[in-house]
């Protein structure tokens, strides 16, 4: 039984990787038994009986949603809309994965649950904030998982664990019971080893709740897998957007991204260097992100247990939550026009996902607020502008640096361009076969690889 195997893999790795905040063993086995009966009766649904994981910012009925925080949390009464849709497709949620506090940082560590580790090198972080989901998929514990992305939090851990990470159009996957998340910068997305599995999970989870603020048109993304894209005009953008602190692309990461650009040229696409007109887009991101944190802190049942950096960010968010926030929200339409002008010349942007490989465990967790901001921007200056815009992006593996540390690149498009991005990612995957590489992990003195069946 697929679920039994997933639960066994989770148990075997939890002491090493610590990917899960909670595991629904008893409930998942009961749901798997019901799925087996449906299959025997001839019922077919896209994910019937497939074990998946969801990040612990997503409501699962009967379970708490702690979102990386310390303290006791009451179980929620209902599934979030994304989980409801996954269940309707037949998926079985085996557990909720670890995330840093309120998803703020590109590492998955904290006093509430310890350190989540990278399957490719357990001395390093898998990234964040969807680090638990990324570690679970990269290690083969589940074939696919949901994460959320507010400044790269699906794409960054996908990059650092050699996965496909899809950040879809804002609203493509509902964030209900919240009409929008973190003032619209955060969306739900998918992580998987293959483009096909990431697209399948995206289609299964997609759809709007009646009270969502953002309701993009319906798309079938899976249909784009295996559909050869036409000859595309691709802008290779290596320059980081303007940030308050210095950010420099490491030469070895640059080399991996440029190598991807060369493969795209070999596949028949036209690639040339060009950068989006980002301007001072950061001035619109900060009020939205910090006001979103302030909202979560107001709702927290144990505010005294929150990280000092969280409380500092919430104070900034309260200061910026009036006129600066309103101006930031209004600026989005102008940014769409200015940055979107690039897509009059190009079809897709190829950019690094991060400027550096995954840091060591603990390297960022003990810093103060300013130090954490500096370190985050130095390592991850590329992903967050697409959260302001609300447009889709897909991380694809770009190879390894320092022998064992994965890095990735982003395929970025305008509104509702998921099918194009997925088609291009699938073409690269067929050429480079990155999904055939697996991390080797040591358990009980033996080196093992877990290779679950594909979700598809």
From TrEMBL:
Gene Ontology molecular-function annotations: catalytic activity
Domain Amidase intervals: 2-421
SUPFAM superfamilies: Amidase signature (AS) enzymes (SSF75304)
InterPro entries in the record: Amidase, Amidase_CS, Amidase_dom, AS_sf
Similarity section: Belongs to the amidase family.
Protein known as: Amidase AmiA2
Lineage per the UniProt record: Bacteria, Bacillati, Actinomycetota, Actinomycetes, Kitasatosporales
